[in-house]
Description:
304 residues
Amino acid sequence: xxxxxxxxxxxxxxxxxxxxxxxxxxxxxxxxxxxxxxxxxxxxxxxxxxxxxxxxxxxxxxxxxxxxxxxxxxxxxxxxxxxxxxxxxxxxxxxxxxxxxxxxxxxxxxxxxxxxxxxxxxxxxxxxxxxxxxxxxxxxxxxxxxxxxxxxxxxxxxxxxxxxxxxxxxxxxxxxxxxxxxxxxxxxxxxxxxxxxxxxxxxxxxxxxxxxxxxxxxxxxxxxxxxxxxxxxxxxxxxxxxxxxxxxxxxxxxxxxxxxxxxxxxxxxxxxxxxxxxxxxxxxxxxxxxxxxxxxxxxxxxxx
Length: 304
């Protein structure tokens, strides 16, 4: 691991990172731990109640590593599709800290059951449950954000970050996936508009092609292309840590930002010392087709 990164200090800051059992959410939470923040790690995968689709990682594991890195990790079993769970999370943060500085909306169920039907099948061959997984993910972001936002009003510089990926006007290769990923960005813009008279910033952040646990499970199948430009989940976390520590972050409210661009602006690198530029899809293979191939390999290699 590259030890050259000097994280900004977020000591005293309170953050919630949704969907942080593994993948991008875990990387974000760990980077915030490096910066000294208290991080509520939410997700459905716990040591006592099982893991989503048998993939490695739980909220308990992530919280423990945050604490080991110098922050304070708090594991919370939470299904963000449930308003009761979201309300319980808001009540707990309010009771334990009185407010919130950072919310990262990372939870995304749209890749689940990917081996059941081709992920990149045309819309007329797609089951409604796939649309509903994507729809439910966006609803979850909306619901948890509306409940947690008031906790930021008494803080000096609140920040809401939505994790999206649309690659501009490029069609991602599956109708529901494309629509709801684009909606992530639109939701951030809407939040920013409503928050214009508050000291809270809302923006959308696009990672590149991330080496998550799913990608690890299918690494050999990726071959050239994405494998050459893949980055760690913590690269995303480092971008968010710098945004959270930037007193001028409010100037970015409503914007769509790319991790690779922020790495150049703030001068940070990935854990391996590389500074990868903003990711753009190239060639004829859509993102949905890449994900379809990856998820099928995962389904073959993950124990049931």
